[in-house]
Amino acid sequence: MSSTHTKSATIEQHIDIEGHVGIDEHIGRDLEYSAAYRWQHWIRAFSIVALIATGFYIAVPVITPAATNEPTNFLYALFRTWHIIIGFVFISAILLKSYLFIFAKKHVNERAALKDMINPIVWAKQIGFYLLINKHPKLKGVYNPMQFMAYLLFYLMAFSLIITGLILYVHVYHEGLGAFLYEPMRSVEVMLGGLAFVRELHHMLMWGVILFILIHIYIAVYNAIFIREGTIDAIISGVKWHKRV
Ligand code: HEM
C-alpha cells in the first residue's frame, strides 16, 4: 500500500488514552503515502464504486422513465455512457498503477513484498497475527504475503474486467477506438466462447471485486484497531505513526 516513507520529526506531541498531552520521543510521524499515491487510490476507489452502481443498472434497469411519444429519456443509454466513460478512467488508473509497480524507482518497497510472499515463515507469522497469537512479522516490503496475494488477485480481476469490458464496448461504440479495437476484441470474444458468456463473465468479476472491497475495508479497520499506526487516516492525510524504539 505504500510507496514513500520519509522521516519527519522524531519527537511528537503525544496524547495518551486519558487525553493528557505530552511529548513522546518514542513515536514519530512518517510520510507513508505521497499526495499522488493517495489521489490514485481514491480515483481507483471512486471509479470502482461508480462502475458497480452503473453496472448493476445495466444488468437490471430497475427504473425506467415514463413512456412518452417523444424519442427522449434514454436513461439506459445514459447509464451505459457513464459506465464507459468511467470505465476508461478505471483503465487509465489500473494501467498507471501497474506501470509504476513494475518500473518506478519509488515503488521498490512494493516490489520487495514479493520476497515476503515466497517466505513460509512470514506466512506463518502473518496468519498468527490475524489469529491474535503473535506480533506482526517484520516485513521486507510494504505488503504482507496475504495482502499481496489479495492484490494480485484483484489486479487479475481488474484486467479481466478491462478485457471483457472492451469486448462489450466494441459492440456498442463503432467509431474511433471502438473501430480500432473491433477486430482484436472480436478474436478474444470468440476465444472466450461468445458475447453472452463475455457479458456473464464481466458480471461475475464484479462480484469478485465487491468481495475484495469488503475484505479490504475489514482488514484496514482491523489494522487500524490492532496496529494503531493510523492506517486508515494515512490514505487520507498521508501520515502514519511509528514507534522509534
Ligand atoms: C470495476 C470495473 C467494472 C465493473 C464492476 C463493471 C460492471 C459491469 C456490469 C455489472 C455490467 C452489466 C453486465 C450484465 O448485463 O449483467 C457491465 C456492462 C458493461 N460494461 Fe462494465 N464494469 C467494469 C468495468 C468496465 C470497463 C473497464 C469497461 C470498458 C470500457 C466496461 C464496459 C462495459 C460495457 C460496454 C457494458 C455493456 C453495456 C451494454 O450491454 O449495453 N466495464 N459492467
Supply the key terms.
245 residues, mainly alpha, Fumarate Reductase Cytochrome B subunit, 3-stranded antiparallel sheet, two-stranded antiparallel sheet, 9 helices, elongated, disordered N terminus, binds protoporphyrin IX containing FE
Question: Helices, strands, pairings?
Answer:
Blueprint: E1 6-7, E2 12-15, E3 21-24, E4 27-31, H1 35-59, H2 75-103, H3 108-111, H4 113-117, H5 120-130, H6 145-172, H7 177-192, H8 195-226, H9 231-237, E5 239-243
Antiparallel strand pairs: 1-4, 2-3, 4-5
Helix pairs in contact: 1-2, 2-6, 6-7, 6-8
Bound molecules: protoporphyrin IX containing FE.
Biggest sheet descriptor: 3 strands, antiparallel
Indicate the CATH architecture: Up-down Bundle
Bound small-molecule species: protoporphyrin IX containing FE
Tell me, rounded to a whole number, the average pLDDT: 89
The share of residues in helices is: 55-70%
* Overall geometry: elongated
Structural class: mainly alpha
Order of helix and strand elements from N to C terminus: EEEEHHHHHHHHHE
- Tally of contiguous helical segments: 9
Distance between the termini: 23 Å
State the name of the first-level CATH class: Mainly Alpha
Q: What is the domain tally?
A: 1
Strand order of the largest sheet: 1-4-5
